[in-house]
Amino acid sequence: MTTAGSVASSRRPFRPATDREFAQFRALIQEEAGIHLPLSKKALLVRRLGGRLRDLGLRTFGDYYQRVTQEDDRAERIRMLDCICTNETHFFREPRQFEFLTETVFPAWRQAADRGQRDRRVRVWSVPCSTGEEPFSLAMSLLHHFPPESGWHIDVLASDLSTSALSRARRAEWPIQRAQEVPEHFLKRYMLKGARTQEGKMKAGPELRGAVRFQHVNLNDRRYAVAGLFDLILCRNVLIYFDAEVKAQVIKRLISHLAEPGYLLLGHAESLNGLNDSMETVVPTVYARPRSAVKQRKVSARGELHA
Fold first, then answer.
1. How far apart are CA 294 and CA 180, in angstroms?
2. N- or C-end of the chain: fewer Cβ atoms within 10 A?
3. Helix (H, G, I), strand (E, B) or coil at 186
């Protein structure tokens, strides 16, 4: 039973973070997630983590730091990272990239399949996927251009550091206002409009949900537990949170999961300049991994790598 005293304690204001406490959290967050927080982000850290201090009835950020660094409280460290993550996203964001895919990349994939130079499976990875708008946008576009009834199989992997964002993405539900971001013909084909208790919401239909799977991935891990190679990796607006060293390592690991040929798409404020010279710039924020002249690769229907 919650006593009146414990409720009052949880509502007591916590003390502002000191520079030392901020430095401790900055080092911990960079170690865990690779996210670099300059001193100018101190107020953001206080705002994002303040709710956890209130929920736990803690008075100082030093107390919370002791809590999240306990070896037996990994769950709280995950909650801390959830608080830090920024989940800003939209359906069909970066429309020029979608134009490039539909006008250039998708026709080339179909032609290659018709010539027997690739199988009829498209594998893409959306990282970070946030609350699902980007991977489901990809899935709608892919299902439209590569219909399963024509023998194509669409496999969209959606991953994120934030477990709370992944949970929301798995539900595949959004406020009905987000429908304004989705082309009308996609809405009619792939989305369901909520009624009665679900009024004011829209939900991805069965065909769309069946094309997307979810996985927790921390881009700061030395290896990603992700199987096979991908024709396309969508990695938007996350590199901006890393320093140069972490950026280079993340890009290197992502490229290792990219097929030859394959494409890497970044956010409008990001580039590979000075980070990796193995990729070719196709159009701004779109990079291609060309097919190796030494070793040809092919991804089987199971996503396995064969020489």
1. 47
2. N
3. helix
Instruction: From first to last of the 307 residues of the chain, give the pLDDT tens digit.
Output: 444 444 444 456 778 889 999 999 999 999 999 999 999 999 999 999 999 999 999 999 999 999 999 877 789 999 999 999 888 899 999 999 999 999 999 999 999 999 999 999 999 999 999 999 999 999 999 999 999 999 999 999 999 999 999 999 999 999 999 999 999 999 999 999 988 888 899 999 999 999 999 999 999 999 999 999 999 999 999 999 999 999 999 999 999 999 999 999 999 989 998 888 889 999 999 999 987 644 444 444 444 433 3
With the C-alpha atoms ordered 135, 140, 144, 150, is the resulting torsion angle positive or negative?
Answer: positive
Element (DSSP H or E) covering residue 126 = strand 121-126
By residue count, the chain amounts to: 307
Q: Evaluate whether 102 touches 145 at the Cβ level (below 8 Å).
A: yes
Phi, psi of 242 (to 5 degrees): -110, 155
Neighbours of 196 (CB within 10 A): 5
Cα separation, 240 vs 254, in Å, equals 16
Other C-beta atoms lying within 10 Å of the C-beta of residue 43: 11
Angle at 84 between CA 80 and CA 89, to 5 degrees: 135
Place of tokens 């959290």: 25
Angle at 86 between CA 83 and CA 87, to 5 degrees: 110
